[in-house]
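Why should sequence recovery work at all? Because a backbone constrains its sequence more than one might expect. Tight turns favour small or flexible residues, buried strands favour hydrophobic ones, and helices have their own preferences. The token representation captures these environments compactly. In the example below, the structure is given first.
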């Protein structure tokens, strides 16, 4: 079965940067719209950004201008470049295949003030 594996999380100070990666598999990856979501403690999971199979992107207002989603179909990987990080960005970040509904296991991002 196609899997999604996130990596790149960690702990940074406010104003820092991180790049998350989501490695996919399976023949559907290249034609799938993909999304990054996050879930902070005690809060519901929320959409961060999406990228279509043709690389059309969409962002939550809270991350516009700071985060960039991209994909490399040759490598079956979706990225989330996160700049100017804030403490409120602290969450577990999940990758999602919007075509299949499959989720990755998540990667923790912690931003300290």
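From this structural description, the recovered sequence reads:
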């Amino acid at each position: 079965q196609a899997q999604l594996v996130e990596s790149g999380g960690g702990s940074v100070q406010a104003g820092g940067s991180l790049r998350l990666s989501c490695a996919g598999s399976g023949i559907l990856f290249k034609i799938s719209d993909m999304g990054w979501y996050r879930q902070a403690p005690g809060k519901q999971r929320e959409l961060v950004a999406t990228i279509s199979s043709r690389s059309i992107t969409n962002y939550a207002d809270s991350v516009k201008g700071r985060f960039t989603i991209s994909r490399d179909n040759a490598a079956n990987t979706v990225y989330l470049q996160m700049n100017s990080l804030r403490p409120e960005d602290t969450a577990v970040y999940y990758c999602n295949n919007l075509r299949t509904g499959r989720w990755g296991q998540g990667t923790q991002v912690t931003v300290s003030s």
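A few observations help interpret the result. The mean pLDDT is 95.
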